[in-house]
């Protein structure tokens, strides 16, 4: 099983460009999450989707949008990239809220 | 007080040593607890869940102390391959109430 798959693995953007980070899971999980991780800080929740058809803001949603395309896929979009969005982005999924989350291997995004 | 606090370390220990990390949490209503391992520039991977009765998996033991609001991770007979950052995770009962600590860095020295 692939688990949680993220694409791309690396990306460099110029300020103002847009892009979409893709995430897919094959574990039949209901809930999916997008986090960013910056040096010296814990993982911070950007958006989450408790179940197919629903999305909600997390701790740091500004500058991002998400789409829960179906039960498997949850994408994160940067409409107008800013240098402050340079980070490592992780997608995660879980079956139920009190269960541990399973992570993809991350997207390393640099914005110049 | 931060929701979840960890000593960032680094903890430098010789091979074969026993090392323990603590993680304190502020919300007394927290319901589930986990330890994850994160290698440099990689994704967090679940190491173990933490149960009220404590649990053990090989050289790793996790404990929960609800009265003092902390969880602990004990690693016995440290291996070089244990070098990583250990994240504690506390769930206070909602999808956006999962809080990750900043992690404790462990370096096992030959």
Q: State Rg of chain B.
A: 13 Å
Counting DSSP H or I runs of 4 or more residues, the number of helices of chain B is 0
Strand content of chain B: over 45%
Residues in β-strands, percent of chain A: over 45%
N/C terminus separation of chain B:
37 Å
Question: How many strands in all of chain A?
Answer: 11
Largest sheet of chain B: 6 strands, mixed
Q: Largest interface, with Cβ-Cβ < 8 Å?
A: A-B, 26 and 26 residues
Largest sheet entry of chain A: 7 strands, mixed
Low-confidence parts of chain A: none
Averaging pLDDT over every residue of chain A, what do you get? 94
* Mean pLDDT over all positions of chain B: 93
Please give the number of β-strands of chain B.
11
Helix content of chain B: under 10%
Structural class designation of chain B: mainly beta
Proportion of helical residues of chain A? under 10%
Radius of gyration of chain A over all CA atoms, rounded: 13 Å
Quaternary structure annotation? heterodimer
Name the shape of chain B in a single word.
globular
Uncertain residue ranges of chain B: none
Shape designation of chain A: globular
Describe this structure in words.
- Chain A is 0% helix and 49% strand.
- Chain A is built from no helices and 11 strands.
- Chain A is globular, with a radius of gyration of 13 Å.
- Chain B is globular.
- Chain B has no helices and 11 strands.
- The model of chain B has no long low-confidence stretch (mean pLDDT 93).
- Classes of the chains: A mainly beta (112), B mainly beta (110).
- Chains A and B meet through strand 4 and strand 10 of A and strand 4, strand 5, strand 9 and strand 10 of B.
Key descriptive features of the protein:
heterodimer; A: about 110 residues; mainly beta; seven-stranded mixed β-sheet; four-stranded antiparallel β-sheet; about 0% helix; globular; B: about 110 residues; five-stranded antiparallel β-sheet; 11 strands
